[in-house]
Amino acid sequence: MYYSISGIAEAKEGFLVIHNGGIGYKIYTSNTTLARVSNHQETTVYTYLNVKEDALDLYGFSTEEELSTFKMLLSVSGVGPKAALAVLSALTPTEFAMSVATQDAQSITRAQGVGKKMAEKIIVELKDKLKGVDLREIAGDVPQTVSVSNDVLQEAVNALMVLGYSAYEARQAVKFVSSKSNQLEEIIKLALKELM
Q1: CA dist., res. 59 & res. 70, Å (int)
Q2: Which CATH architecture has domain 4-61?
Q3: Does domain 65-129 have CATH number 1.10.10.10?
Q4: Domains of the chain, residue spans
Q5: Three-state secondary-structure class, residue 27
Q6: Which CATH architecture has domain 136-195?
Q7: Could you read off the pLDDT of 86-96 as tens digits, one per residue?
Q8: Which of 10-19, 55-64, 112-121, 178-187 is least confident?
Q9: What is the torsion angle, in degrees rounded to the nearest 10, for the CA atoms of residue 25, residue 31, residue 36 and residue 41?
Q10: 179 class by beta-carbon count within 10 Å (0-12 exposed, 13-18 middle, 19+ buried)
Q11: Which parts of 109-149 fold into alpha helices (H)?
């Protein structure tokens, strides 16, 4: 319903108030976004409206990548908005994508209220959603100067898709930077720079 809201920001504990047109919108957000927002300055947040039987809650983030990651987390059964915010308060979208791509449940458990079982469930469900990506054509286009395994390229594409990029965008970015490194983290970082 709402794509984004812009206005004068006021940071509170666990949420923002965005003043726009005489209305103060209460927007729940992550600690990452709260740290980026300057009080009493013009701010834009990308929003998600959570509709429940007894409430309409608005969630907002300083970047579209963070919003995409939030939505991805909500798609996991048993993960609600509070757990998704906790994960995004503990990990940046890039760190979260790396955790899923490398199946690192331990880093996801840094989020308050997220135990090992939930972290593993998040990884399993998100990895399953991203399994259909075929990287054979990328592997064929990798220059011989750098040896990169197909698994590393697959994990890099999966991580970018967790961040909300399409399979095509992720493949193209990984293909473009794959000759520069054979390390998963480095490939993801370089690909993100290309996509931005």
Answers
A1: 9
A2: Beta Barrel (2.40)
A3: no
A4: 4-61, 65-129, 136-195
A5: strand
A6: Orthogonal Bundle (1.10)
A7: 999 999 887 88
A8: 178-187
A9: 30
A10: middle
A11: 116-129, 136-141
Average pLDDT, the chain: 83
Residues in the chain: 196
| Contacts of residue 111, Cβ cutoff 8 Å, sequence gap at least 6 | 83, 86, 87, 89, 90, 91
Question: Do β-strands 23-28 and 56-61 pair in parallel, antiparallel, or remain unpaired?
Answer: parallel
pLDDT: which is higher, 177 or 5:
5
| pLDDT > 60? residue 51 | yes
In angstroms, how far is CA 92 from the centroid of its own chain?
7
Q: For residues 20 and 23, what is the distance between their CA atoms, to the nearest angstrom?
A: 5
Neighbours of 44 (CB within 10 A): 13
Tokens representing 156? Answer: 């890099």
Instruction: Dig out the tokens for 61 from the structure.
Output: 């983030």
Judged by average pLDDT, the poorest of 74-83, 125-134, 167-176 is 125-134
Encoded tokens for 154? 């697959």
Please return the burial class of 194, using the count of CB atoms within 10 Å of its CB with bins 0-12, 13-18 and 19+. Answer: middle
Q: Which two tokens stand for residue 98?
A: 């790396």
